[in-house]
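It would be a great kindness if you could assist me with a short task in structural biology. The matter concerns a single protein, recorded as an amino acid sequence and a row of backbone structure tokens. The record follows directly beneath this note:
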Amino acid sequence: MMQVSKLTDLYGREGLSPGHTACQGCGATIAVRQVLLAAEPPYIVVSPTGCLEVVSSQYPYTSWRVPWVHVAFENAAAVASGVEAALRALEKKGLGKRQKVIVIAGDGGTFDIGFQALSGAFERGHNLLYICYDNEAYMNTGIQRSAATPLGATTTTTPTGKLEMKKDITSILVAHGSPYVATASPHLWKDLANKVRKAQSKEGPTFLHIVAPCPRGWYFDSHLTIKVAKLAVETRIFPIYEVEHGRYRINYPVPRPRPIEEYLKLQNRFAHLLKPENAHILEAFKQWVESRWNHLLKMAEAFPL
């Protein structure tokens, strides 16, 4: 890490220093590293409280090598809106160059606590890129369930398994009229990088949803992070697609999906779903995956990009 007092403009280098304190195998920091390697400067990053903020900014040190603003759990999109509006005003006065503000937040600050601010920013049409690294729970505060937690997953607040399906955040942001919404995975790094650049190039609010496996909260060995991300995609649990001005493209077709059990058995948060007495929950999980995939296929056929 670098001392805050010595922080200088280091654009052109990696935006996140390797000297952070994230857990080994942290999917979020892998994804953020890829995002910042792909992002076209100049830009300003806004992050709410969460895993990313905690591991990257312990006073008096910081892992950030780009302009970065830490805000409260619930208001990242609102603060980013203000930053974007200020940059727009300065540009009109000839005092600066307009740039894309990038929000990087976890699922708790996106699906739940920060959703009202997120919805408002997209409704107002601010020129920002909102990126959600999705580790499917409130990992920073003790692995509590969030709206991103999938059906059946155990957390400290759902010890016998969550009873509700995962919120479809991408469809919600598409419905806001965003010019670009996409999903990505750190194991498909080139696809992720291309989507960051495309999202930055659009005028208006854009959204990127990245799967971010968490060894600590999903209970798997830290060397398996990329394998788990890959299985999430290849089982169709986390489809990789993009929606540009309401038109769909599946970037990673999965005509022959791998068994969902291959994904579940690597994570102890799902261990109980593989027991005979919970076969009905597993079947509901599989039906949810199939229903979402079939819906995506229909949208891509009806509104092709």
The chain has eleven helices and ten strands.
